[in-house]
Amino acid sequence: MFARQVVIVAYPRMQSLDAVGPFEVFAAAGRLSAAGGTTAGRPSEAGYRIVLASLPGGPVTAASGVVTRLRPLSATTGPPGSEASTMR
Question: Where are the domains of the chain?
Fold first, then answer.
């Protein structure tokens, strides 16, 4: 199976937990999937490829002052298997 890409889009002055919380949830789901978890009695699909991005890319400062350097959103889109869709 293939990993599903999840793109979390950040923006200036956002609450950092609005990005970090979902990142942690999908990371945990990916770990459970890799450990052989099941979904509704069926084996889970491969995990998740999680990407943090912003519209222009570059540094984004959260409301708390935490600065994160992110890739541009345009670099995260593309058909499955394309270079853009497999960036980390």
Answer: 4-80
Please state which CATH number belongs to domain 4-80.
Answer: 3.40.50.880
Buried residues in 36-69 as b, exposed as e (16+ CB within 10 A): eeeeeeeebeebbbbbbbbeeeeebebeeeeeee
Closest Cα to residue 65, out of 15, 8, 10?
Answer: 15
* The model's pTM: 0.72
pLDDT in tens, 13-40: 999 999 999 999 999 988 887 776 555 5
The DSSP code for 33 is: H
> If you ran DSSP here, which 8-state letter would residue 17 be given?
H
Strand partners, 6: 50
